[in-house]
Amino acid sequence: MSTDRKAPDPRVEVELVRALYRQGPLASFIALVMGAVMAAAIWGDVPAVWVAIWYALITANQAVRIALWRAFHRANPGPESVAAWARRYTAGMAVGGGLFGSAAWALPYLPGTEQAFLLVFISGMAAGSVSANAFHRPAMVVYLAAILATPTAVVTYLAMTERTMGYVLVAFAYVFYFLVMQGFGRSQARVLRQSIEFSHRNDDLVAALENKTALAESAKRAAERASAAKSLFFAAASHDLRQPLHALGLFAASLRTGTSDPQQTRRVDQILSSVDALESLFDELLDISKLDAGAVKVTRGHFHVESVYSRLATVHAPAAAKAGLGLRFMPTEAVVETDAVLLERLLGNLVSNAIRYTQRGGVFVGCRRRGTAWSVEVWDTGVGIPEAERERVFDEFYQLNNPERDRRKGLGLGLATVKRIAAVLGHEVELDSRPGHGSVFRVRVPAGDAARIPTSIAAPRAEALDSLAGKTVAVVEDDAIVREGMRELLGEWRCLVVDGASAADVAAALSRVPDLIVADYRLREGRNGVQAVAELRAAFGAGVPAVLISGDTAPDIFAAAQGAGLVLLQKPVQPARLRATLTRLLARGRAAREVAVGLG
């Protein structure tokens, strides 16, 4: 039996250790604050000199860690010495974990409430260390063992001496907690390592393209974009995989525009197809996870079903037209009481699923009264669903008539999401179908009261549905591919689009005051969308409505948008949501001007 294993990539090891040391003084500051809190918790119950000595040791350990951080950055080690720096970091974590865990010696002197606080506080520090140390598994394991060893031993001692079942349970819980945290950390470490390896494989692919094509300059720019995407990936990998996946898609798309070799073009197209499928799968899995975890907040209200129809038509009409199908929404005066966003998502999945499995005919969406509720129905003339399969189609990844797993037919998560949203909203979903003739899905939604509909979301008037037509939209986006996509989308809505990589480019191209501004947050040369909006407003008027778009989830971006009074949308932005936001901003700006005229 072969025992050969692939040797680790030295570049990956260097990146992992650099990520450990990147935490630096901030981690030490947090540790000092945590130590101070623990010292305050046990102060007065144990001899003060003991507490002072313990905290002095904590401070000394953090001072050594800061000195080690400085030495690491001065040395800037490479593959040949990075293992030694990893061992030094691990030793520091072992000492730090042991010191924090040693606070458990105070447990016998503390009353029950303070004992519980100390044990929970130590457990929280152990959990928080997993993400920080997952870049180097030995450091993670050593810290967990060191910080949990003393509490476990002390609690076990108390269980034996006081013969209290509570201490026995706590001791068992700590052992189980250690095993669980190790398992979680091992999984996170594997994801981080694979992510970095994948990033380096992209770098290798770029290098190969440079050697095989005459487009050396174009490949160099692509490598620089890949490096930037990789840096963003490291910043967000332990918290959120969505933005790195988005960066990978942009990198692949940029390669597509930089080669004229048919063979290379075909390969890049395959990469783009795989990225699109992965992003779609990730989005749908994330939705299902949120619904299963109860993390989706339901905001119920009264609204016209027609307002949901208008947004669904905007989103799904192009796909139906491309498939040669009709898509009709029966006019209705129905008013319902539920969460408008979640109902739109539920119906959107049903409409998308119907279009995907209908070869001829079309899809019809209607609404009829059923006692105290409205039955919102999606009909199609598709392949139909056999009676024996009607329960299974709501399971994850289960698909009919797609044994080859053709991605164009979806991933088998649409109806699974429908089932979960309906459960969250408390709505009943019914399915009737005739194989070979089509299917109908019915969602029963409680009837609402038209008098309780907020003015801002009343039934749309015909002229409001096309309120963007003829409006001048200034788009500031430094990525040419994203800019082109935005230009095409706004063009479909009959907007007049003036775009550029910077506010200066857009201002130079504008011949009139824009009706709307759409700006990406991160721009070239350290600029951002908040600054771009400010520059355009200074040139054309402070009252121009503006929306900010970002793929980042950092709190400072939300704070910057809020401070500037801008609406912030997170990438990837659904067209329907973008259109609704732009329409709302236009209406708000028009209302403000009318008030100003009235006051004048």
* Helix-strand makeup class: alpha/beta
Uncertain runs: 227-240, 402-412, 456-465, 594-600
Q: Termini separation (Å)?
A: 88 Å
Question: What is the H/E order?
Answer: HHHHHHHHHHEHEEHEEHEEEHEHEHEHEH
Rg (C-alpha, Å): 29 Å
The count of helical stretches stands at 18
Tell me the strand percentage band.
5-15%
Q: Total domains, how many?
A: 4
Sheet with the most strands: spatial strand order: 2-4-5-7-6
Mean pLDDT: 77
| Major sheet size, sense and barrel closure | 5 strands, mixed
Overall 3D shape: globular
Q: What helical percentage do the residues reach?
A: 55-70%
Summarize the model shown.
This protein is of the alpha/beta class and 600 residues long. The chain has helices spanning 10-21, 24-42, 48-75, 82-101, 112-133, 137-162, 165-212, 216-236, 242-257, 262-292, 305-322, 340-356, 414-425, 480-492, 503-509, 529-540, 555-563, 575-599, and strands at residues 301-304, 326-329, 335-338, 362-370, 373-380, 428-434, 438-446, 472-476, 496-500, 516-520, 546-550, 567-570.
